[in-house]
Design brief:
- There is one protein chain.
- By secondary structure, this protein is of the alpha+beta class.
- It has a domain of about 160 residues: Beta Polymerase, domain 2 (2-Layer Sandwich).
- Helices cover about 50% and strands about 10% of the residues.
- The strands form two sheets. It has an eight-stranded mixed sheet with strand order 1-8-7-2-3-6-5-4.
- The longest helix is centred in the C-terminal third of the chain and has 22 residues.
- The termini are far apart.
- It binds adenosine-5'-triphosphate and magnesium ion (MG).
- Adenosine-5'-triphosphate (ATP) binds next to helix 7.
Amino acid sequence: MHTLRASKYGLSIKKLPPSIIEVIDALSKAGYEAYIVGGGVRDLMLGLNPKDFDAVTNATPAQVKSVFGRRCRIIGRRFELAHVYIGRDLIEVATFRAPPKKEVTSAQGMILRDNNWGTIEQDFARRDFSINAMYYQPRKGIILDFCNAIADIKSKTLRLLGDPAKRFEEDPVRMLRTLRFSAKLNFKISDDILSIFTVDMAMLLRDISPHRLYDESQKLFTMGQLQRILPLLIDFGVWKQLFADIQPILNNFIVLAAKNTDQRIQVGKTINPAFFYAVLLWENFLERTQFYLNKGLVPAEARAQAGLDVLKRQCTRTVIPRFAETFIREVWEMQTRLLNPKPQQIESLSSHARFRAGFDFLLLREKSGDQDTEGMGHWWDVYQNLSIDEKEAAISKYNRQRVKKRRRTSSEAPLETVTTADPQAIEPLVVEKENTSRRARRSKARRTGMTTATNVRTADSNQNSTGIDDRHPILKRKRVQRDLAQVVFGPTQ
Ligand code: ATP
Ligand code: MG
């Protein structure tokens, strides 16, 4: 173990936010050991701006709670740790961990529970990369380096602690972390990792919960190095595990959107990771829409159904939260509205909550060579910067061209129009499907005083005094009348 002088590596207590110092000081005062560890130390050493600071201590989560009281919450089951809230900051405080006990490891070697407390020497070996395993005590001004991490910092090498194959089997998410840190820090991946990081190894990611994978995908999208990470995801076979149905091809649209996202992050603008999901899934959405059009659905229904289908498929890999799904479907729907707006709706469209994202998406499509936007990306780009008079003139000109186009196409498919009572009002972009879970139905029944469809159907015999259908779920299943003459009996029936 080497004890390094922090100041020699550019680290000083003055560079730390008060929240992390308060956590370290409070734990030390209570008689515990406490260090800053992980990305915070690593990024400071590399001269980068750390995203946050994590602490580690020999106090158990319950002891951390007794130090910080109501400012502390214990979270996690698989990996229990304490969240300490200092002002507006949240500091994660982990407890030194020993190797997990055998009985909490799956048949594939994956660690299912990791709450075996230990010493700092045991803790460093449980961390993923050498560069993430440096312990910084800011009051003492020292860094503890157990694995010559400083050499890897200098040679810009990402090295896993221990046997790489075993470490990936224990937690396959480390494969994603390998690619993420390599792209983010511009570090080379060590040879012993490269030799075992095969497409077969990447398949272990199938055992990871789609919730955790969604969180990881967000980190990949928001670290500011999408352009670097995307080819790595494809080369290492990780793409297929994260996005099963998306072709592993970096078309112009994806590349341009990645570049745009990275640039936004670089200049400190906010980004919504759901936007990049909308980009990645766009081709699938178009294909699926065509599928429903071919089946004879009207365009609006085809799009709505296609959007739901595509997102449902993606959720088998990364569970996209409901609000993000709605955002994605709205961005897609905006494409149709912006492509062919009714003249009287143009101004309200430009102040719609989803206009900005929809317009950015349209412009990126156009700039990447998509002819289907018919130049409307540029049109909206110009429109937004016009004076009121110029806007009116632009709308009149657009209207004349639109009428001409309609005459030309009237013999073909009619242009899609959305009808509303108020000609300037914008129809909702997506209609949310009703939450059909049993709990949601019950709470709705309670709210509305029992007028849901199910309740009406079962009103006579199956409702209790609250108007809720309380039969056993199996009895509530709708019986489907099947015409047996039309059923084809296959081997499984
Ligand atoms: P950043 O926060 O910049 O993304 P980080 O290295 O701080 O990077 P965190 O996810 O915040 O990453 O984790 C903090 C530390 O916990 C890591 O530096 C590492 O030491 C340890 N760690 C996190 N995830 C794992 C893992 N899957 N396996 C082993 N150690 C891990
Ligand atoms: Mg961190």
